[in-house]
Specification:
The structure is a homohexamer.
Chain A (H helix, E strand, L loop, with lengths): L11 H8 L3 H10 L11 E2 L6 E12 L21 H6 L6 E6 L7 E3 L1 H9 L4 E4 L2 E2 L2 H4 L6 E3 L1 E2 L8 E6 L3 E3 L2 E3 L4 E5 L2 E5 L4 H23 L12 H13 L2
Parallel strand pairs in A: 2-3, 3-5, 4-6, 5-7, 6-8
Antiparallel strand pairs in A: 1-7, 2-9, 2-12, 10-11, 12-13
């Protein structure tokens, strides 16, 4: 099964820039563009040391139902990798993409476990995000792949979830995610950057972080926030001079 | 836009029978067939006096996002009925069908209001179910159409919801709903009857209700439940005789 | 199975008095005696028109587990009334008692349904309270027995609950209930009156209601609450005169 | 204690118009003015038959703490009406005002009971709104005053709440309420109309309801929503003609 | 007070094997045996580095009530260790057992603190599990005993909890726990292994982990999951050869 | 804007003692004085290694509303530090004080971020507590200032919160906080010590910790809790001797 990507790819440099910008800065930049709530509520990193940026490849779960998975199981009872959509998604996610799983916020069973995470990493994906849970979470923390979830749970996915769709618009952590959106993660969590905003947000976010580093240093050095954060003309001039001086 | 129905229609007599059986009885019949949880949790009738049975026609909401609805609005800012999927769904639901809306359990805004409910009724639908809310709920209670929701809320849908898909498998009240499933509602709430089970559940549910009416009368008359509920051979014989006697 | 009652019975006159006092008044009387929170949170009447007072007979559910009920089922799969504790409890509750069910606040399945409710009524019980749900709730509302629950749900109890104990101390609606406590219910909900407080609370509650009826009339007639609610010496004197005058 | 009102009063005619407009219509009108979420989530009417409109007079509770109320109690343990702010608020609310109570959404104890409700009505207030609970709720339902709450609970307020402030900006049902805002309630719940928007919302809401009544009749008569809801030029012309014809 | 153990002890080798198997593997093995949900939801390790396996010794809390603890306190107000069941349980838990506390998921006060944890460790217990909270949690993390909870809270247990029963069936984290069940914990959380399943689950879990280690290595090395996870005949043959080769 | 402090300052020695006592001990001492629940539920340290004690300086948020912040923004859209109360609070908190933010438990946006935290530290504050969230939480963890919150969230405060008041009584984590109360935090969380209790709680808490260290050592060495915890006369004598011996 070949899953089409109906969106423009984002340049690697842009992804690199976004990966270097904090989710807090992204939130500010997106708010300037009119987006108020693109943070995935309650979805936290298993590995806070790893940053992530990649375009969304989505998987949509609906609640498990006794009749739904029958045709997707083999005689042994195990999943048929060629029919079950969770498995198809794992074998379809592309290099540099972030798999985003809509688990309806339900952590009563896992969305997936360490063997599938290892496979997703082997395929070159940039990370995995679920608003459900991972199983084998201690083992997953050993894998150098950014992963984000609302919880951990050893129960197998199909006790609670049924994989219904691949690469459709989904809900994750209370936010709409459209295939192709840029998904950025850091120690604070995960932000959705709508595809059309990626380039300008990367550029302006980068500049914002430079300016705030300057402001932060002034504040640590004892400056009041008045006139400094937000900066007035004088502080901005100081900042410009500082930028010049650093080349 | 024409929405295909990829499922076998259920005969009107079967729907009539299902409409006459309580959700409690359906739950028991479905449990016998291996289905443990097909009740939509927390979804209650606006009109407990109306019973409902019809095949599911689904609408899937995802969270609203500032960029998603732009192309679906007219210059006035109002929805374009030809582009917005909530509106397309309203103009596509068929006679005898139940519109089932996946609102992710979110009642912070309505799924729809009284004018759309009136249109759905005018199209001959059998009812509407959302795990979100209705607006204009006092006016909707005046309409003789079975409606079920988790709450009431005057806020317009697009402040919280974006209509992403029509007639795909959805989650509603924590239960998977597949287009074509039979959706049955009474004063206790809503049960999903998987399409393939509809006929046998209707038939056996009908018989169960007759038998339990007999048992209920015995219990009210002072019988212990021992030997009666569940019935032993003697009680069953009594029941068969009672059935014969009533023709 | 005979279930011992290790507590002193409450006189019928006391129960009648308690049944005539509102849960709001009982809450005030119990607070005076040092009890701050004896209201069953979220447990509401199916029949707000019926008042209830009776001593607690308890049933404790724990979560269902696939192995627990095996020995309590008959070949047919139905409950064995002689082994299953939910059924034993139904056949053991006494005249004038209130069955209190600890369902851990879980409404994903029923605690019991209309046939068992009818049997409990036939045995002369004073009412039923669960912090779970009833099934067949529309039918139960037709029965003239006070019933109280946190929800309604057609699913059969054993999909979620297993009856573990009869007449032990339990939790219901976040409150400890000890067998023999007096359980009082009205349209506002359910209060637990610890056994040892029953008589004095009945007497003082009765007097409080009379006094507050007097105060209420004054307030409706335009009196400020200052000096009236709570009453000062003058208001109390007026009240005493009013009481005298009415014999 | 005299509580200042630092806001412009709303004309009685405007309040009358707002009382005649549904909360659903108000929500639409406020959205046009940029306000997305002014509905008090989860706050429902005790008397769905009564409509309400009045300017907000607020009371702010914080959590009870063992030391806070000491100075506000009399020797008897009862509240001192001259010191306790709940009581002062009751004796300060003005004719035509709506008392809005910030109870932090906490329904574990009441915000107030029937005697204070009666006093508030006697003072001529337009209604009472709490995001907590009422006690004596069955008795309150007998009073012809619009009241709205998240729950019912016989427990006395000070077991959970301490009245900290009168007529300051508060949170109620997740919405900011500023003294002087117009609070409108109907069977669907409660909307906050910011003071500055009251007049234009009343006028435009009234017109919206007339237009939607026209549209509703067309839809009931079988019209598609396409071209009708929202109305196109032709439908608008029809509407204008209909308005003319009715004078 | 001597607490009887009405169950067969599990052999130390079996406990050792279970302690070496992940909760994820146990969940899979239990699912094969028909148990879908035996993971304690939301109960997490204070010390993720410690694994635990032991038979359940249970303690059941109900909500605190002002009259219940009176007889269990000494003149000083402190608990009487000979009467209070929390204290009796601490002095009764056996070597190798896991104390499992049913705290109704309530973390508003602790289930116990560091001195009692130290005593339980001194008695040789294998660990402690509560679906409530620990107090002195920083100090408990210093103790080399596996402990698991839903939260941390310095408040003393009896402000919220009353110890009602020892070694009865309980609910913990939404799962039924029967005295004698094997309770296994690792960094992912806690699984209940019903007593009768312990031996076969230990044996098959051990084999499953070996096979999955083989599969994991193949996937890390670049293998698709198709044919590998689940393994087809060829992969199984490879695995058998690999096992042989390693003796 | 100068914010008055209407409370007696606590001596530095007392604050130092309180900072050295665990929240668990404080909870016990406060319970002896009649305070049952002064722990901020769900509010956890970002830096469990840092202890905190200081008098409360409060900031009260209410829900954001589209019209409220208009006058507090500059032409650029940024906050005006001289008008916005969050910013005024940051520039008003005093040396040794703890800023306590009432965020209504809402973590959907931050209460503040790292630049403001740095400024608060530069002003000499003792710490920051919110029952909402921090943004830039990874950067805040780098700052040597005790900070406590219910969550982390990159979204800017004014998307959800509006700063309404400074240094008034507030609710935080479900507990009343009065300006001047001593706020103590450690790895377990945050306790409120009412101003009037600070000195005696510090003194008795210190002694309690010494005694419990002695008891703890006995228990670790194998003593039963009977006679030891709580200590009987013999154990107390032993303790007194131990104290003497250590000078």
């Amino acid at each position: 099964m070949s899953i089409p990507r109906n969106f423009a790819p984002v340049a690697p440099e842009t992804l690199t820039m976004l990966k270097g910008v904090s989710t807090a800065t992204l939130s500010a930049q997106l708010l300037k563009r009119g987006y108020a709530q693109l943070y995935l509520q309650g979805v936290l990193p298993l590995r806070p040391d790893l940053h992530m940026a990649g375009q969304a490849f989505t998987l949509r779960f609906i609640p498990a139902r006794e009749d739904l998975a029958r045709d997707e199981q083999m005689a042994s009872g195990d999943f048929n990798n060629l029919k079950n959509k969770q498995r198809i998604a794992v074998e379809s996610v592309g290099a540099g993409e972030v798999m985003v799983i809509d688990a309806r916020g339900d952590t009563r069973a896992a969305s997936l476990g360490n063997i599938l995470v290892a496979r997703i990493k082997a395929r070159g994906a940039a990370g995995i995000v679920t608003d459900g849970a991972f199983r084998d979470s201690p083992a997953i923390k050993e894998i150098d792949l950014p992963t984000f979830a609302r919880g951990q749970n050893p129960n197998i996915s199909f006790t609670v979830h049924y994989a219904a769709d691949i690469n459709v618009p989904v809900s994750c952590g209370g936010v709409a995610v459209i295939p192709g959106d840029v998904i950025v993660g850091d120690a604070e969590g995960v932000m959705v950057v709508p595809r059309a905003e990626a380039e300008s947000v990367a550029r302006d976010g980068w500049e914002q972080e430079r300016k705030e580093a300057f402001i932060y240093d002034k504040v640590v050095a004892g400056a009041s926030i008045v006139g400094v954060y937000p900066p007035n003309a004088e502080t901005l001039a100081e900042y410009e001079a500082w930028k010049q001086s650093r080349g």
